[in-house]
Fold this protein.
Amino acid sequence: MKAISLFSGGLDSALAIKIIQDQGIEVEGVYINIGFDANKDKILHLQKLADNLEIDFKVIDAKKEYIEKVLFSPVYGYGKNMNPCIDCHAFMIKKALEYMPEAGAEFIISGEVVGQRPMSQRLPALNAVNKLSEANGLLLRPLSAKLLPPTIPEIKGWVDREKLFGISGRDRKVQLSLAKKYNLEGFESPGGGCLLTDINFSKRLKDYHKYLPLTPDEINILKIGRHFNVDGYKIIISRNKDENPTLKEYEGKVFEKMFIINKPGPVGLIQKNAPIEIKIKAADMMVSYTKFNEADVKISAEVFQGKKKEKNEFKNYLI
């Protein structure tokens, strides 16, 4: 018997795995990558935790489908920012259901706890997730199972319901006690992992989507840099040398790159269809974020030749 676990890297998902393993069931961890995790080392962290749990681990890249089907048109709306939590959970379960035949699994588990999160883990929200995902009884939540209707794995006797838990609320004392029992370490802290819950990122994303279509190529560049909206055209300039590689590696179709070619300095992106006057302003912005005089700085195309201006001249464009 085998189960798939939605694998987030947090304590709750790790505990769900251990509880099911204790019943002699093989578990494979699955991370549905929608692109908006704040942890840039997420995959490395998950692999390390999977090794500690002695499970196989798979990443399913679902960024394109998530953008097209969920992000901008959620059935159950958003939380405080751009986080469509109920639709997001349902989407991940759907992707796990699609993967089940390939994995040779019979059901899915998750670390969700009744009442732990205000939008996505209240009892009505969990019911909404079940309905939207069309899980049809194949989704088991081991940490709160005794508070929920029996699932197919319980009804058919694959899993002993008496060995599951009835945890609810935001108090994590029971989970921390179980973590000690299982000697679990290296799990992520709860909350704060999804950029869609961040007010500043959400504002940037909303503004971007107002003017331009989002593809997976643009997700990473939305996470970094100084973002400007000049007459409806987007300009992005790196804040430090650590951000330069992300903009240099951009391979999408929306922006072209700007480089300072004879001095150390930032990397920039400018909308490809921006008119000449916007591109010149973008060059001025690039020059303003260097330490050098205007005459010493060369931008990577003639149209981008700018003049030294004070940074605060551009503050009204900053997103």
In short: The mean pLDDT is 92. The longest strand covers residues 26-33. The CA atoms of residues 6 and 30 lie 5 Å apart.
